[in-house]
């Protein structure tokens, strides 16, 4: 079985929750999986892994700079390994933006890097206004108003399609 490294960038913890689901699926297939925050990626050696999965959340329309830096610094290694990438964003809650080829953040990310992952996915995220700072709450409510999403400041809404996450976990396991 394979050794899989799942690197993630998360702001509010939802991307990590998705990674934990992917990890559980891969472990059911008998793979050994290690989960590492992109913040700690510089501490890791990547040569011992057969597959690498990179998961990145969006905040204010952008992936973390650390994700771009990691991919750019490790491009040669990533090209030599079996790899997957997924993005977590609220835009993916909409049917016309929930696939890699129609999600603007995934498209933009893949255009900015020369890395071509073997598997790509996009998952809808979660809103939990009470967890946000005052400023984040205001800005995210404005974005949701513009994009016709939930704006009530007490809203907690998870848009993630967990069957889709499970399927991605199976795809990664079978790559």
CATH-defined topology of the largest domain: Rossmann fold
Q: Count the strands?
A: 8
Backbone CA Rg: 16 Å
Mean of residue pLDDT?
92
Count of discrete alpha- or pi-helical segments spanning 4 or more residues: 6
Helicity level, as a percent range? 25-40%
* Total discrete domains: 2
CATH class of the largest domain: Alpha Beta
* CATH architectural type of the largest domain: 3-Layer(aba) Sandwich
Residue windows where pLDDT falls under 50 for at least 5 positions: none
Give, in order, the helices and strands: EHEEEHHEHEEHEH
Largest sheet: 6 strands, mixed
Query: Which structural category do the helix and sheet elements fall into?
Result: alpha/beta
Q: What would the keywords be for this entry?
A:
6-stranded mixed sheet; two-stranded antiparallel sheet; 175 residues; 25% strand; 6 helices
Give the helices and strands, then pairings.
Blueprint: E1 3-9, H1 14-28, E2 32-37, E3 51-59, E4 62-63, H2 65-73, H3 75-80, E5 82-89, H4 104-112, E6 119-124, E7 126-128, H5 134-146, E8 156-158, H6 162-174
Parallel strand pairs: 1-2, 1-3, 3-5, 5-6
Antiparallel strand pairs: 3-4, 7-8
Helix pairs in contact: 1-6
Describe this structure as you would to a colleague:
The chain is of the alpha/beta class. The chain has two domains: 3-125 and 160-174, Flavodoxin domain (Rossmann fold); 127-159, no CATH class. Helices cover 37% and strands 25% of the residues. The protein is built from six helices and eight strands, in the order βαβββααβαββαβα. The strands form two sheets. Strands 1, 2, 3, 4, 5 and 6 form a six-stranded mixed sheet that branches. Strands 7-8 form a two-stranded antiparallel ribbon. β5 (82-89), α4 and β6 (119-124) form a beta-alpha-beta unit. The longest helix has 15 residues, at 14-28. The N and C termini lie close together (11 Å). The model has no long low-confidence stretch (mean pLDDT 92).
């Amino acid at each position: 079985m394979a050794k899989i490294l799942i690197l993630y960038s998360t702001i509010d913890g939802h991307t990590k929750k998705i990674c934990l689901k992917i990890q559980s699926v891969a472990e059911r297939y008998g793979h050994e999986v290690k989960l590492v925050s992109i913040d700690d990626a510089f501490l890791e050696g990547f040569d011992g892994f057969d597959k690498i999965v990179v998961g990145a959340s969006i905040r204010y329309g952008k992936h973390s700079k650390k994700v771009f830096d990691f991919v750019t610094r490790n491009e040669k290694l990533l090209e030599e390994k079996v790899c997957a990438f997924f993005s977590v964003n609220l835009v993916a809650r909409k049917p016309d933006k929930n696939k890699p080829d129609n999600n603007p953040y995934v498209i933009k990310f893949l255009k900015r890097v020369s890395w071509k992952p073997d598997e790509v996915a996009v998952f809808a995220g979660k809103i939990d206004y009470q967890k946000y700072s005052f400023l984040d709450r205001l800005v995210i409510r404005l974005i949701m108003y513009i994009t016709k999403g939930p704006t009530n400041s007490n809203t907690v809404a998870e848009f993630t399609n967990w069957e889709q996450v499970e399927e991605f976990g199976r795809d990664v396991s079978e790559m």
